[in-house]
Amino acid sequence: MSADHVAPPVLDRLERPVEDLRVSLTDRCNLRCTYCMPREMFGPDHAFLPRHDLLSFEELSRVLRAFVDLGVSKLRLTGGEPLLRTDLPDLIAMIAPLPGIEDIALTTNGILLPRLAEPLVEAGLKRVTISLDALDDETFRAVADTPLSVDAVLAGVQAAIDAGLSPVKVNAVLQRGVNDHQLEDLAGWARDTGVTLRFIEFMDVGTTNGWQRERVVPADEGQARIHARWPIEPVAPERQGEVAERFQYLDGAGTVGIVASVTRPFCRTCVRARLSAVGELYTCLFASKGHDLRALVRGGATDTELRDAIASVWRARTDRASELRSEGGLTGERVEMSYIGG
Ligand code: SAM
Ligand code: SF4
Ligand code: SF4
Q1: pLDDT at res. 122
Q2: CA-CA-CA-CA torsion for 43, 28, 189, 254, nearest 10 degrees?
Q3: What are the DSSP calls for 203-256, one per residue?
Q4: pTM for this one?
Q5: Residues with beta carbon inside 6 Å of ligand 3?
Q6: What is the pLDDT of residues 121-152, one digit of tens each?
Q7: What fold does the segment set 20-340 form as a domain?
Q8: Average pLDDT over residues 102-111
Q9: What residue ranges do the domains of the chain occupy?
Q10: Which of 247, 226, 332, 327 is nearest to 284 (CA)?
Q11: Distance 192 CA to ligand 1 centre (A)
């Protein structure tokens, strides 16, 4: 569909358009964060997806074009660890020029950024989000279940800054009794380094990470602790549907965000779709099953058929899992975050 034939937005059953697409590029990862890919479940015998099952970059570009035609303007490339697809700059170069795509973001653990930051920028990537849950080696190693040290991630942060990626955001998932003592250190480091930090409440994604509500550090508490050290005040969201609540430091040292997925769910404004590495469309992070788009792509469907299939899944969408959790708790099967893309 060309730009002068823009269709009306496709709305789901709760009148939400589809605007963001999170694309998982692989279910593999070079870390084993206990809250995401616990080694007991993702050990040496785990059956990761075979390479030929993953969408090729050509197939992916075609699926992305269909989403763009339906209103998606923002892409987030994630995983698993997206930088394990070391030819990622080729994908960026293919999708960055697509008309209708206004923003491409990448979420990574940062470890391979020293090698890839520059080629990614040359290919057209503008910004990056790096996950870092602790600044001391002992806590980092316990959370990420790795012999690597924090310096490996910090080198990635520096490589991103040096390559000109802007903004560089850093995500930290806080768990009580595990790394919540790092909150002030992380905030202070981010202020000094000039990166934008966002604290994320520990979520019950998937069914293998041993989630317990007691381990969630509620946004209110995180906010109060930051405020006690460096006074902050709320600022307006950068755009509608933004998941992070933003606060600015009154001393002018930038902003800090909190993603309160558990204690202040934001399903009402959720405009995000997710695509697994094998091309399944998920309409919620907590969905139990996806809709197979790869079968359509590999089965010879036309662009119109592909677009119509996505639109009909979206129109039927009623998801509001985080609100339901607040009302009574989530039950049943849920796909793992490393598979669906965080
Ligand atoms: N490997 C990349 C990374 O770690 O940035 C991208 C994929 S990871 C699944 C995406 C984001 O999801 C990370 O920031 C990670 O901390 C977050 N995440 C994973 N499991 C989570 C959980 N149970 N609760 C909250 N956030 C989680
Ligand atoms: Fe890997 Fe990211 Fe999950 Fe950690 S959070 S295990 S780095 S996919
Ligand atoms: Fe969106 Fe589902 Fe998260 Fe609610 S629980 S904000 S519908 S992804």
Answers
A1: 98
A2: -140
A3: ---SSSS---GGGB--HHHHHHHHHHHS-EEEE--SSTT-SSEEEEETTS--EE
A4: 0.95
A5: 266-267, 270, 272, 284-286, 319-322
A6: 999 999 999 999 999 999 999 999 999 999 99
A7: TIM Barrel (3.20.20)
A8: 97
A9: 20-340
A10: 332
A11: 24
